[in-house]
UniProtKB/TrEMBL annotation:
Gene3D superfamilies: D-Ala-D-Ala carboxypeptidase, C-terminal domain, DD-peptidase/beta-lactamase superfamily
Pathway membership, UniProt: Cell wall biogenesis; peptidoglycan biosynthesis
PANTHER family linked: D-ALANYL-D-ALANINE CARBOXYPEPTIDASE, TRAFFICKING PROTEIN PARTICLE COMPLEX SUBUNIT 12
The protein, known as: serine-type D-Ala-D-Ala carboxypeptidase
UniProt lineage: Bacteria, Bacillati, Bacillota, Clostridia, Lachnospirales
GO molecular function terms attached to this record: serine-type D-Ala-D-Ala carboxypeptidase activity
Catalytic residues as annotated in Swiss-Prot or TrEMBL: 64 (acyl-ester intermediate), 67 (proton acceptor), 124
Amino acid sequence: MLRKKIIATILLLTSLASVFSVYAEPAATGAGMAETARSYVLMEASSGKILLEKNMDDEVPPASITKVMTLLLIHEAVAAGKINWDDPVTVSSHAAGMGGSQIFMEEGEQQPVRDLVKAICIASANDAAVAMAEYIGGSESQFVDMMNARAKELGMEHTTFKNACGLHVDGHVSSAHDVALMSRELISKFPEISKTLTTWMDTITHHTRKGDTEFGLTNTNKMIKWYNGLTGLKTGYTPQAKHCVSATANRDDMNLIAVVMGSQDGKIRFREAAQLLDFGFANYKVKKGPEVGEVLGSMKVKKGDMKAVEFTIENSMAFVVPKDRTEKEFSYEIKYDDENVIAPVYKNQKLGTIVYSLDGEVVGEAPLVAAFDVGKAKFNDMLPYMAMRYFRLS
């Protein structure tokens, strides 16, 4: 089969896996953004592209933004079937004695996983975070080991966790970029958490020896009351960390993460996060492309029980583009690994490469894979070929 090249103009797809991004300076700049913050970063979530940053790798105390990693490990444990939302969790004396922001649980009190997570998301409860850490890890220190291992997997090179809740301890540090990385992982893998993160007020019920009492929760993230499109995520404060926030928002199918570390006061951190988000929404757009499973063409197969196999992409793509370049032409070119495909062919077998371009400049590539299996031809399948070959030669 002759080598084929397919060129097509496309809209490029926002994706959660194996994404690429395009960047050029927009008309606006980041001057004057988040001026009181020690550090900040603005990230587009689907691609991980950094749109703005200041001192984003500086290692600083993260305060309760630490709980983003705690929430991530909780959700991953539920997804893996290790724990369930309705599991009763018994509160230890260690968890009950955390101090700081808390829901004032007593030693021996039991709460379901679901309500402890609600308390972490809405009220930033230290006692709830440590109770969950002990439930999943066996002890808080073992859970912290899990947190640090997961941080390493996510490429969080400037983070060392010492506890599960963010109370200040020397050496407990993270960075604006690292906070964005774990925030991205949480909202990308578990977008349903946004419903809890953006709940303004709720309650839990304490079950103790004295009886049942209702306890009110009020969200620490005041941005949910006024910022359009906010989806989360987490606030933090200690005297050492100052005022921090990881704010996530969605508009026009674009997810942004604004992390502000060490801001001057609580209200200012929200205004500074809003500045960053506004900048991103005003100046950038995500282009969309072929989805996983979308058939992009077919290839002939020799000696197979089917004459051809359709192909698709292994991973979807997302490209972050300045709005002043959104009308530029995007295209893709399909290049086959081999012009002669011989059965058997297996689903997701690599058949070639899809190469993406913006105005002729290559901006990313990804594997091209088979959409389904093609088995080896049986004797009956081969009869037509044998007949054709016989009459050609005779």
